[in-house]
Specification:
single chain, globular, Protein Yjbj, Chain: A, about 180 residues, Rossmann fold
Length: about 180
Amino acid sequence: FEMCSQLQAAKCPVEYLFLFDGSHSYVAAYTQSYRAKLTPGKESEAETEALCAFIQQFTGIEYNKLLETLLPLSDLEARVNKAVNLITPSHKNVSQDMLHFAASTFYHKLKAADRYVPTSKYHGNVTLLRAKASSEYSDGLGSDYKLHEVCDGKVSVHVIEGDHRTFLEGEGVESISGIIHSSLA
């Protein structure tokens, strides 16, 4: 969204914008739900929450166990290193450097997304490819995740089988591919 808005501001044409189960409001709802649990000003808690979510994408480690492990560590670097050590045993084929980069980037991406507020409207049509299984974060956002508030074109919503993580697998990929191909035709 932001890249397309910046391209438009630079007078570069943007023909298509496809969003995959997300919007500015969806990400804000996600980060705000985590922020509500945190002590204001305690960066260690924010880092720990983000890295717990990251680790749980790759392992079956319980949230409370991760919290006990990560929170006492001295800083973000120590938490990221621990995250890599926890993920590596079940994902030996993934480089530790790549995991380190992904974990620290995940935290910084969430931190940036938490502060993000669109400064202008997107001038054009948007296609939202939305997961069928809604999450607690999408409740109250409407079917278009509030994209109508920041876009002056048509917002098309296509619901894809799966949840936020699985809709990009199997039949979901086929559905998404078909929607994109028909939109570009």
